[in-house]
C-alpha cells in the first residue's frame, strides 16, 4: 500500500504549529525511518497518519484516499500501530491483548475464532513470546510489553505498519531481532514507518530516512545520503563520525560518537 503525506500541518494550540508542511511518500516494500530530537513532532505525525488527530492543513492519503474518509474498522485492516508504551486499565491476559489485533477481522458481537487465536499465537511465536500467553499484561516487563504490542500489530495483518520507537525498551538482542523482523516484513510487501532515536537503525533496516526538526522534515533520502556527521551535528548537536567498515565482503556504516 502507498502512504502519502501532503503538506501536513497540525497544532495542539492555536498559533503553535507542531507539524508544518510535512510531505512524504512511502511505498510497499519500503521502511521509512523517522529521526528527530525529543519533541520534534514524530508521535504527533504518527497520530495524524492514524487519523487520530485532524490536520489543520494538508492530507494523509492511503492508496490515494484520504485517511479520514475510511470507516474506522476498514482503516484497521490497513493500518497497524505500535505505540510507544501502553498499559490498558484492565488486567488483560497477553493472549487477549494480541487478539485485539484481530478485532477488525471479527464481525461485531462475534468471539475470536480458532483461526484468530492461531494467528495471534503465531505472531507471538515469531517474536519468541509464546510463553507469556497467560501472563497479566500489566505485570510483564516494559520490553516484553513492547514485543506484545508488536505481536498485536502483526496479528492484525495490516498493509501499513507504523511503529513509534519500536526498540526503545528492548535489550540489545531483541532490538536486533525486531529490526531484522521489520526488514523482513517490508521485504514481504508491507509499508513500514518507524521512529527511532538511533540513526544506525536506519542503516540496519531503513530504505529511506526522514529527519524531523521543530515539526518540519529537514532531510529525506537514502540512509547513506542523510545520515552524515554534518547532519547528525545539525540534528542532535553532537559530534559523530559516520564510518564505513568492511567485514566478509559486506560494507557497514557505523556512527562513532566523540565522547572525549
Ligand atoms: N496532547 C498535547 N497537547 C499539547 N502539546 C502536545 C501534546 N502532545 C505533544 N505536544 C507537544 O508537541 C510537540 C511534539 O511532541 P511529540 O510527542 O510529537 O514529539 P516526539 O518527536 O514524538 O518526541 P519524543 O522523541 O520525545 O517522543 C512537543 O513540543 C510536545 O510538547
Can you give a write-up of this model?
- Its EC number is 3.6.3.-.
- This protein is α/β, with parallel strands linked by helices and 260 residues long.
- The chain has 2 domains: 221 residues, Rossmann fold (3-Layer(aba) Sandwich), CATH 3.40.50; 33 residues, no CATH class.
- 32% of the residues lie in helices and 29% in strands.
- The chain is built from 9 helices and 12 strands.
- Strands 6-7-8-3-9-10 form a 6-stranded mixed beta sheet, with helices on both faces.
- α4 crosses α5.
- The longest helix is centred in the last third of the chain and has 16 residues.
- The N and C termini lie far apart (46 Å).
- The mean pLDDT is 92.
- Bound molecules: adenosine-5'-triphosphate.
- Adenosine-5'-triphosphate binds next to α1.
Fold topology:
Layout: E1 3-13, E2 16-26, E3 31-35, H1 42-49, E4 57-62, E5 65-66, H2 72-78, E6 79-82, H3 94-99, H4 114-126, H5 142-156, E7 160-163, H6 172-187, E8 191-195, H7 199-205, E9 208-213, E10 216-221, H8 223-226, H9 229-236, E11 240-247, E12 250-257
Parallel strand pairs: 3-8, 3-9, 6-7, 7-8
Antiparallel strand pairs: 1-2, 1-4, 4-5, 9-10, 11-12
Bound molecules: adenosine-5'-triphosphate.
Adenosine-5'-triphosphate binds next to helix 1.
